[in-house]
Amino acid sequence: MEKVKTGNYRWVVCALLFFATTINYIDRQVIGLLKPTLEKEFHWTEADYGYIVMVFAGMYALGYVLFGSFIDKVGSKIGYGVSVLVWSIAAILHAFVKGTVGFGFVRGLLGLAESGNFPAGVKAVAEWFPKRERALATGIFNSGTSIGAVIAPIIVPWLLGLYGWQEAFVITGAIGFIWLIFWWIFYEIPTKQKRLKQPELDYILSDNEAIEENPVKLKWGQLLRLKQTWVFIVGKVLTDPIWWFFLFWLPSYFADTFALDLTKPSLQLAVVYAATTLGSIGGGYLSSYFIKIGWPVLKARKTTLLIVAIVVTPIFLVRMMDDIWVVVGIISLVTAAHQAWSANIFTIVSDMFPKNAVSTVVGIGGMSGSIASTLFPIFVGTLLAYYKGLGNITAGYNILFIISGCAYFLAWAIIQLLTRNMKPIENLNP
User: Fold this and answer.
1) What are the domain boundaries of the chain?
2) Distance in Å from the first CA to the final CA of the chain
3) What is the Cα–Cα distance from 371 to 193, expressed in whole angstroms?
4) pLDDT tens string 388-400
5) Residue 336: its pLDDT value, please?
6) Cα gap 268→301, rounded to integer Å
7) pLDDT tens across 201-220, in order?
8) Is the pTM of this model over 0.70?
9) pLDDT (tens digit, 9 = 90+) per residue, 251-300?
10) Does domain 9-418 have CATH number 1.20.1250.20?
11) Are the CB atoms for 341 and 307 separated by under 8 Å?
12) Rounded mean pLDDT of the chain?
């Protein structure tokens, strides 16, 4: 337990990570919100738009690996800075392209650079927080995904109406440059941060984990031979596709099932995405609380993951509900639970690996989850098209909800098997 005043500079770092993640999700959503306008401007077909989305997803998966290794090699300050710089430039470049191929190129560059957000963020949390606070800190910065999902539908249509679609890309993309100024001024690893007082530095280092002054590069093969790496891969591969399903198909589900008018602001969708913020922070707080009362770190994380898997199960009841607000309540609970899962599965990496491997492992697992998330929509689209042809598309959604409810239990069971007698890795050398 923390008995004395240690200072709060580490939470300034957490705030920087939160704002970067919020900007990340705003920038990636702009094109979706401008889709009707861009379809008219460039005469896009659904296939054209699908191509652009697939380029983003594919490059996002590749970027996880490239940036994961890059950040471990150059350090979190430079690595995160490069990621935000490149994705901000890519976001602005959307305003200057002239066709589908151009959008595919800048979208790919955006996906490549945006993938650096989580490897850098998780590494920074490992550098700045003791294990007892890491899940909470990760939950707070991960909640930026939810805030970004809520803010973008508000500011992008406003910018479109006030200035035009080009300016919407330029203005939202430029926000990253403002963040970069604060990052460069206020971020440094704790042992080099002059603004940090000694009591807080001692608290940060209370787990007796070294902070590497000279980052090194680790090989994939070395990490893939470790069960600890596969804990994170399993946790991402089996659950990331569920999150992307809710992110991209939820509006269509409400439109198809409850005739929700998507041309108007949707309070229902706003409630769902706002709830994910509470899940992210709450999930991080819960496992951190377990550690503070004396639980072993891995037991605290796995117990929280099991609670999350249980909380997801009400999704099975959606098929029986006729009231849209009851469904909104259930889905809000489930999406909040996913974000609680995400906060803890990211934190497990920093629990199990030394700091010089964190970004690389997050990159490997993130790439795996992104590939699964790219392939799962093929199944979703095929399934829904089949049932739509039968005149019962709701049945297709119900099958997907059942899959969603089972995925977290399956992931937890595999993680439980992998972590028998597992101990943190104390040192990794290239």
Assistant:
1) 9-418
2) 35
3) 37
4) 888 888 888 899 9
5) 92
6) 31
7) 999 988 765 555 555 556 76
8) yes
9) 777 877 888 775 565 678 778 878 888 888 888 889 989 988 999 988 99
10) yes
11) no
12) 86
Q: Are 347 and 133 in contact (CB under 8 A)?
A: no
Cα gap 139→129, rounded to integer Å: 13
Confidence grade of residue 1 (pLDDT, cut at 50, 70, 90):
very low
pLDDT number for residue 352: 84
